[in-house]
Design brief:
- With 1025 residues, this protein is α+β, with helices and mostly antiparallel strands.
- Among the domains are: 4-69 and 463-552, DUSP-like (2-Layer Sandwich), CATH 3.30.2230; 210-387 and 399-420, Cathepsin B, Chain A, CATH 3.90.70.10; 557-608 and 641-693, no CATH class; 696-843, DUSP-like, CATH 3.30.2230; 852-865 and 931-1015, Ubiquitin-like (UB roll) (Roll), CATH 3.10.20.90.
- The strands form 12 sheets. Strands 5, 10, 14, 15, 16, 17, 18 and 20 form an 8-stranded mixed beta sheet that branches.
- Helix 7 packs antiparallel against helix 8 (166-172), helix 7 (144-157) crosses helix 13 and helix 16 runs antiparallel to helix 18.
- It is flat and about 130 Å long.
């Protein structure tokens, strides 16, 4: 089938030869494409949107063949959530709780610990003796032990593939989105359990934590002088072994127990000798628990970067570990068998994922516990400490060494769990209490009910799918329409009907209607013509409307479209004719005035007018595309003015300016008037607006007057204009005892007028009242006007002041008087006097504003090491000085102002807001250019310096501890202080000197985590909260 645009043109090709009044029913049917041939499946690969008779590729392919039950979209098989035979139950990861899940699985497979926990008393009996609503209300454990009991019971006998540990995690008060240290969690939870279980009467329960996990060692110090031995005993739940610089686990254990010499400044004070003596100190293992937890210290502190990092060196460990050489008491079995390996996946010390590889004590098989995913490990190819999806080592990573049988190597092993090996290995039956089994049975019943519901829903979906399959197979064959009885229906609805994942909605044809409540001709491309038989079934089953039958073909719209298209075609010819006529000269005694803008845009205005007429009460036409507009037309600003209204003045008459209009011939005007019959008509003899002529003459007179005023003021106040030979308050001139003051704003506005009198209005008055308080007193001291407030005032010579009083109205005289008070001392007095009360209030408010800003902009400039930071003012001015384009242009127009007497360029003073200029230390807001070494930051006054350093680290890749910040020559070093307290104000410039930049993104991520406050398990149930 031909492309959509070709079908569109073919449907309306007849309009060039048929007048609107000659449109027949045959033309209407051609416009609605009734007679287009339907597409063949062998030739049409996808649906032809321009052909309403094409019913190929609308989603029918999946329904035409035979389908089995599994091909229908349905709910996932509930059996996929069922626990498989001879496997364990997984735990759902709630966000960042993988460290909890791994340790729970390790403890669950400790049979002795699980059995003892089951024997712990529970509040279940109190729950059963309640008010009889236990059938409606689920049992909720009250203590951590009860939560752990119920969790272990579910892990043991649940029918689910995985269970949700939310209740247990919530009881501990853990943050599910915060990754925590697995070792710290293990230690704290075991301590909590030991404290709780020690209160039980049953000795097997009371001592289970100590028996299983708790060992004892002593710090032994031996005096070299007298041989006295000092011993300090301590309990441990795990041994923290340093693996840096070691390749074998036994080497790390030996280092842990290595003897240390106390000599020199580190001598030991011996109570027996009553003096400092050389001594030796070591750790001596007194007793080992049944379950020995070995913590591999793979996270170390890097002194160069100042944060933790993860070691990536391999450490080898054996499945059998003989601890007898390391224990003081050689009596007893000290051979341990590896029972679990905890793995930390990830390169960062502050993030990653925990996985546990645990040995089933009953079957001896190894399983990998990755949250809810549990897999049995291949015994023949057993590699402990290695995760299956661990990436291959790069060139910078060490290669994995070869391991002997019974030995494993890992660079991600985080904790090793060894179980004491005994001569006899009787099977320990774990007996679950009846109340726990009852709770598990209840949960299993709920799970089975859910599985049954899901199965029934799947069955219903399959039944619906089969019914839909039969419906589609029956109706699709009857969809093609004949020439007599047919209806239109939207392609989108048909596609939704054939889409099994979307419920079929009632048919809604309202969006496709024209203003006559019939099918809009422009909507045919998104409609399909179907048989009346199929339409009857659709409306009876799904409802909706209105129905678009053969009577829905709108002849009125087709006639209107014919008229518009013929006008468009005529417009193209007239456009060429008008362009040719405009090239010919116009006789002096004929013609009409037409606006130049109207001549440029008249064709576009006609097209827009035709499009509005063709849109049928606001409905957009798809055929009115921009391809009808020639690309050579320039896109002018869209104006609301109609044709030839651009030469109307404000009085409705012909405008005075001839540059905006053009004289065209009578023939040209006649052509244009056919399209714009109501356009303003101005023959060549039409006079311009008399009122506008008067205003123009007055404007010319005013311009002459303004030029004269500007020239006079320029000559009278040349030094003030050129900013040369100015009095300075910091160094009072010797030849005068009085200096007058005017606002800087007045001088800047006056300079604009003098340099460009035709653009700016003249200045009539000097408003000195802006420098006064409401009481009429001066707001600024002599000292402040000489320093920080010098940017808002301009000193004036006495002779200049006389000229200013003649040229301008002065509302208030402000002057500074120099008087002698004896002994050569000089006093400066202001007239009017300073208002001390208002001045003090102003300064207090200024300080409050500086310390209360939010989301203000400051700048940080990174400098080289060789720059002297004793004074940052020079660099600040250099980085911030810039002129606006307007100021540059003004300087070029006035050569007298642009240069100093010595030929060097003078820096232009730029007017700023008064309140901003008065803030000490604030940079000029005219800074526009920033290099790569300078960046802007949004900060608040209550933000700490440490938080700013984190922002700087993200922008410059410089760690906070490598940043040296300077403000106005002073070092910013107190990280806990707020920016307001440190004197950081909006628009200020802070200088950054960096020791070293960070290029490793993983290292930058570690520092980002380090900069966050480490609260650990603060506020959780593990610490008694």
């Amino acid at each position: 089938m031909a492309p959509r645009q070709q079908l569109e043109k073919a449907a309306w090709r007849w309009v060039m030869t048929v007048k609107p009044e000659e449109v027949s029913q045959e033309h209407v049917e051609i416009a609605y494409r009734i007679w287009l041939k339907p597409c063949s499946r062998s030739l049409c690969r996808r649906n032809c949107r321009g052909n309403p008779n094409c019913l190929i590729g609308i989603g029918e392919q999946i329904w035409l063949g035979e389908r089995d039950d599994t091909s229908f979209p349905n709910i996932d098989d509930p059996d996929s959530e069922r626990r498989k035979d001879n496997t364990f139950v997984g735990l759902t990861n709630l966000g960042a709780t993988c460290y909890v899940n791994t340790l729970l699985q390790v403890w669950f497979l400790n049979l002795e610990f699980r059995q003892a926990l089951y024997l712990c008393p529970s509040s279940y009996n109190d729950y059963m003796r309640g008010d009889g609503i236990q059938e409606k209300k689920d049992y909720e454990p009250q203590t951590i032990c009860e939560h752990l009991q119920y969790l272990f019971a579910l892990l043991q006998n649940s029918n689910r593939r995985c269970i949700d540990p939310s209740a247990f995690v919530k009881a501990l008060g853990l943050d599910i989105g915060q990754q925590q240290d697995a070792q710290e969690f293990s230690k704290l939870l075991l301590s909590l359990l030991e404290e709780t279980l020690s209160k039980q009467k049953n000795l097997d329960v009371q001592n289970i934590v100590q028996q299983q996990f708790c060992g004892e060692y002593a710090y032994v110090t031996i005096c070299s002088g007298c041989g006295r031995e000092s011993k300090l005993s301590s309990k441990f739940y795990e041994l923290e072994l340093n693996i840096q610089g070691h390749t074998q686990l036994t080497d790390s254990i030996s280092e842990f127990l290595k003897e240390e010499k106390l000599e020199g400044d580190n001598q030991y004070f011996c109570e027996n000798c009553q003096s400092k003596q050389n001594a030796t100190r070591k750790i001596r293992l007194l007793s080992l628990p049944c379950t020995l937890n070995l913590q591999l210290m793979c996270f170390v502190f890097d002194r160069q970067t100042g944060h933790k990092k993860k070691l990536n060196t391999y450490i080898s460990f054996s499945e059998l570990l003989d601890m007898e050489p390391y224990v003081e008491d050689k009596v007893g079995p000290y051979v341990y068998e590896l029972s679990a390996v905890l793995i930390h996946k990830g390169v960062s010390a502050y993030s990653g994922h925990y996985v546990a590889q645990v040995k089933d004590p009953e079957s001896g098989e190894w399983f990998s516990f990755n949250d809810d995913n549990i897999e049995k490990m291949d015994k023949k190819k057993l590699e402990l400490g290695i995760d299956d999806d661990e990436p291959e080592t790069s060139k910078s990573m060490p290669r994995k060494p070869k391991c002997a049988k019974g030995t494993h190597c890992s660079r991600n092993a985080y904790m090793l769990v060894y179980k004491r090996q005994t001569q006899e290995k009787p099977s320990i039956p774990v007996q679950m209490p009846a109340f726990l089994q009852e709770l598990v049975d209840r949960d299993n019943s709920k799970f089975e009910e859910w599985c049954f519901e899901m199965t029934e829903m799947r069955k219903q979906n399959v039944d619906k799918g089969k019914a839909k399959h039969e419906e589609v197979k029956e109706l699709y064959q009857r969809l093609p329409a004949g020439s007599d009885h047919y209806e239109f229906i939207s392609l989108e609805w048909l596609q939704n009907w054939l889409d099994e994942s979307i419920p079929t909605e009632p048919i809604d044809n309202r969006p496709f209607l024209c203003s006559h409540d019939k099918l809009h001709p422009d909507k045919v491309s998104i409609m399909k013509r179907i048989s009346e038989y199929a339409a009857d079934i659709f409306y009876s089953r799904y409802g909706g409307g209105p129905r678009l039958t053969t009577k829905a073909l709108c002849k009125e719209c087709v006639v209107e479209r014919c008229r518009v298209m013929r006008l468009k075609n005529q417009l193209n010819e007239d456009y060429k004719t008008v362009n040719n006529l405009l090239r010919a000269p116009v006789k002096g005694n004929e013609g009409f005035w037409v606006g130049k803008a109207s001549l440029r845009n008249w064709r576009q205005q006609v097209l827009e007018q035709l499009q509005e007429e063709d849109s049928d009460a606001g409905q957009s036409s798809e055929t009115m595309t921009s391809d009808t507009l020639s690309k050579d037309e320039s896109e002018e600003e869209t104006k609301i003015l109609k044709f030839n209204e651009d030469i109307l003045c404000s009085h409705g008459e012909l405008c005075v300016s001839e540059s905006e209009r053009r004289l065209v011939s009578k023939k040209t005007w006649k052509k244009l008037q056919q399209y714009f019959p109501k356009a303003p008509k101005f023959p060549y003899y039409k006079e311009c607006c008399s009122d506008c002529k008067i205003l123009e003459r007055e404007g010319e007179e005013n311009e002459t007057l303004y030029k004269m005023m500007a020239n006079e003021q320029k000559m009278s106040l040349s030094d003030l204009l050129q900013d040369k030979n100015r009095p300075c308050l910091t160094k009072w001139p010797e030849d005068t005892d009085v200096i007058y003051i005017v606002p800087q704003f007045f001088v800047e506005e006056w300079r604009k007028f003098v340099k460009r009198p035709l653009k700016y209005s003249p200045i009539s008055s000097v408003e000195n009242s802006v420098l006064l308080c409401p009481h009429g007193g001066l707001m600024y001291t002599y000292a402040s006007m000489a320093r920080e407030d010098s940017k808002i005032i301009v000193p004036i010579w006495p002779d200049e002041w006389e000229t200013i009083q003649k040229l301008f109205f002065v509302d208030q005289v402000i002057r500074i008087l120099r008087t002698q008070i004896g002994d050569g001392e000089v006093q400066y007095i202001s007239d009017p006097d300073l208002c001390l009360e208002c001045r003090e209030s102003y300064l207090c408010q200024q300080q409050r504003d500086l310390c209360a800003y939010t989301r203000a902009t400051i700048y940080v400039h990174k400098i080289d090491d060789n720059i002297n930071l004793t004074d940052s003012t020079t660099l600040t001015v250099k980085g911030s000085s810039s002129k606006t384009e307007e100021n540059k242009e003004e300087d070029k127009m006035d050569p007298d102002y642009n240069q100093n007497t010595d030929g060097t360029k003078r820096q232009k003073l730029t007017h700023l807001d008064e309140s901003v200029l008065q803030k000490k230390g604030i940079r000029r807001s005219t800074r526009q250019r920033r290099t790569a070494s300078e960046k802007a930051f949004l900060v608040s006054a209550n933000q700490t310096l440490k938080e700013l350093k984190i922002q700087i680290m993200n922008a410059f890749s410089v760690a906070p501890f490598d940043q040296h910040l300077f403000l106005n020559g002073k070092t910013l070093s107190d990280d806990s202080a707020t920016l307001g307290a440190l004197g950081v104000v909006p628009e200020c410039l802070i200088l950054l000197k960096a020791d070293e930049s960070i290029e490793d993104y993983d290292e930058l991520d570690d520092i980002m985590q380090l900069c966050k406050p480490e609260e650990g398990f603060k506020g959780t149930g593990l610490l008694g909260h």
